[in-house]
Specification:
The protein is an alpha/beta fold. It is built from ten helices and eight strands.
């Protein structure tokens, strides 16, 4: 899930920042001390998606033996005044699957930025998705298959490595100064890490680009839900004393409703940002309560049921490879909308953090 930057044997120039990066983004300067660009959601999305692209390119630089001035990855974080702390390396094959970036105050001083701008994270952990190249394809597809069959990435060494890396920077800088992001398979890891931290009451900013929503577990669960509905309908229709049993059901329903309200309040404590293209069948099930990819352009602040910020590209790439690509999220050509409704799938993810608590 999520080959981006791997290309189809394309030339390295295709992913040079000046050629394929964001076109109309302002360079950081002293004005950011007065009005920070990082408070603009569009700037934030563009910057974070570029950091994830850097994670892809770090691995491609390794594979194609580009280093020093020929390396492509650094050009995707330097314009935003960040520096590399360390790459995240998969112990199974030595591949780079993520990058840990930190605000570069020394570089910022050259542009008269004496303090980190308001809203700019101190540290960003960016995780790439699948790269369909010989050096990485086996382990990448192994984790893809892990998610597809189990709808979980906890058993992967990449999950363990990302979680440990994020915990170490949280201990040093605090959770409010840390951000995690990923694309496709990387978004799956970012979500899993974010959920694990949230279970311990640690809430970090999270950006999920084209997160995977399709799995065998989900398909089986949908079949089970349909079977349960048919069975309940049959039982209620054939029961002769259904009316006598209706009162206890109502009382139980009221208690369940109260419990659900409390649960919603808990779920709203951690609000990840989802970026979805409705033409991408890997992530489209996040787009609507019913699984149908629909969206409205209207924005409601403080919507009572909000448990995730769901951004959907309404007029953008239609083919799957483009719709699932990362480049669309730093592009200025597409109309991006914030959905008013909430994602039923994301609610189920977040609900699992709290239902087992005593």
């Amino acid at each position: 899930m999520g080959s981006n930057g791997g290309g189809g044997g394309g030339k390295p120039v295709l992913w040079e920042f000046h050629a394929t990066g964001p076109r109309n983004i302002s360079n950081p300067g002293w004005r950011d001390l007065i009005r920070s660009s990082w408070t603009d959601p569009n700037y934030r999305r563009i910057a974070v998606s570029c950091f994830v692209q850097a994670a892809y390119l770090m691995e491609l630089d390794r594979q194609e033996k580009r280093n020093g001035e020929s390396a492509l990855a650094p050009n995707w974080w330097k314009p935003f005044k960040y520096k590399l702390v360390r790459p995240l390396i998969d112990s199974r094959d030595g591949s780079i699957y993520g990058v840990l970036l930190e605000w570069d105050q020394l570089s910022a001083l050259s542009d008269l930025i004496v303090l980190r701008p308001n809203g700019a994270p101190k540290v960003v952990l960016a995780i790439r998705g699948t790269i369909l190249k010989q050096s990485t394809v086996v382990r990448d597809l192994e984790d893809d298959f892990r998610f597809f069959t189990m709808e979980s990435l906890r058993g992967s060494v990449r999950f363990t490595g990302a979680l440990e890396a994020l915990k170490s920077v949280i201990d040093k800088h605090g959770s409010s100064n840390v951000c995690i992001a990923g694309h496709s398979l990387g978004a799956g890891f970012a979500l899993q890490v974010g959920k694990t931290l949230a279970q311990d009451g640690i809430f970090v900013e999270c950006h999920l680009f084209n997160p995977p929503s399709v799995s065998l577990g989900m398909a089986l669960r949908k079949l089970q839900e349909k079977a349960d509905k048919v069975l309940k309908r049959y039982i209620s229709g054939s029961s002769s004393n259904a009316s006598e049993l209706s009162h206890p059901r109502e009382d139980g329903g009221a208690a369940s409703e109260i419990g659900e309200e409390k649960l919603i309040k808990e779920v709203k404590r951690w609000v990840p940002n989802l970026y979805v293209n409705s033409c991408d069948y890997i992530c489209c099930f996040y787009a609507d309560r019913s699984g149908v990819a629909t969206v409205t352009a209207e924005k409601h602040e403080g919507h009572s049921g909000t448990h995730s910020k769901l951004f959907v590209i309404a007029k953008g790439p239609k083919t799957f490879l483009e719709a699932h690509g990362l480049q669309q999220w730093w592009s200025d050509d597409y109309e991006l909308q914030l959905a008013v409704h909430d994602s039923k799938l994301m609610y189920r993810h977040l609900k699992s953090l709290y239902v087992n608590k005593s």
